[in-house]
Amino acid sequence: MTHLIRQMGYVVIATPNPDGSARDLADMTGVRITHRGPDAVYVSSNARFCDVAYLQDARRGVRAVGLEAMDENAVDEIYRRAKSEGMTILADTPLVSKVKRAVRFVTPFGPVIEVHTPVARENIPPSATNGAHVRRLEHVNLRASDPKGFHDLVTRMLGLKLSDRTTNFERAWYRCADGYHHTVACGPGSGIHHYAFDAHGLYDLAGVADALVAKGRRLLWGIGRHGPGNNLFSYYVDPNGCVVEVSFGLERIDNDDLHEPGNWEFNSSSNVLDRWGSQPPDSYGKALTPFVI
Ligand SMILES: [Fe+2]
Question: From the CA of 273, how far away is ligand 1's center (Å)?
Fold first, then answer.
């Protein structure tokens, strides 16, 4: 199937404190604030106008995860498919500004997805970066009431490709056109487990840990190395309770046609979650952020 999704889009978070949320992400990861309004604050790790949008809301949760389509035709095609699949379409306009077109829908398995035209790119003033840290919004890790059903849906409807999975779809990882091992990952449950940034290097992961300690906080888990994707990872919890991953070295899949998805065992003795052998704390598994419509 031809790719309809080019790359990760954005994460839209509802919060009572957009400005504080954005400043915390900037302090921890080095993202820059690109827009600050009364009801919304946007941050970016590169030339894109928005990686994460914080929208003023009495609730805390994720409004939608954005996936950047190849072009307007791909948005149209996914709109048509969402309708024919009988999906609940929430809107045909984007949640964020400087994006031309979008379709936002609720999957039958819980996640809310917004497929959108490319986010505007802008020149970055050198003074806007503090010399650190992350360089790209990398992926989201979702929870679905039926991960196998979710698998069938995203491969059929969005054209995502399976990169790896565990035997019973306790976890599955999907890629899009940009060739990174995964843009979307999924497991059983409800909500979103985390979203992830790609860092320039391992030193940036240490910098995040140091920045947390300076604020009296600490990593939720890491540093370690994931099995599928082979990336170094670290996780922390933001002020809204959302888990943020900072990752380095995610595998690239250079040839879609030649890649055979791995089938991993998912148990405490396997190296799926950490090749180096550590186990996540219980709080890691329980840290879920709900979708709020
Ligand atoms: Fe992840």
Answer: 10
Give per-residue pLDDT as tens, 188-213: 999 999 999 999 999 999 999 999 99
How many whole angstroms from 138 Cα to the centroid of ligand 1? Answer: 8
Tell me the residue range of the domain where 117 lies: 5-121
Domain boundary among 91, 121, 151: 121
pLDDT in tens, 27-67: 999 999 999 998 999 999 999 999 999 999 999 999 999 99
Distances (CA, A) of 87 to 107, 141, 145, 248: 6, 21, 15, 35
Please state, in angstroms and as integers, the Cα–Cα distance from residue 24 to each residue in 21, 31, 239, 291, following that order: 5, 10, 8, 21
Claim to verify: residue 139 and residue 282 sit in the same structural domain: yes
Domain contains 126: no
pTM over 0.70: yes
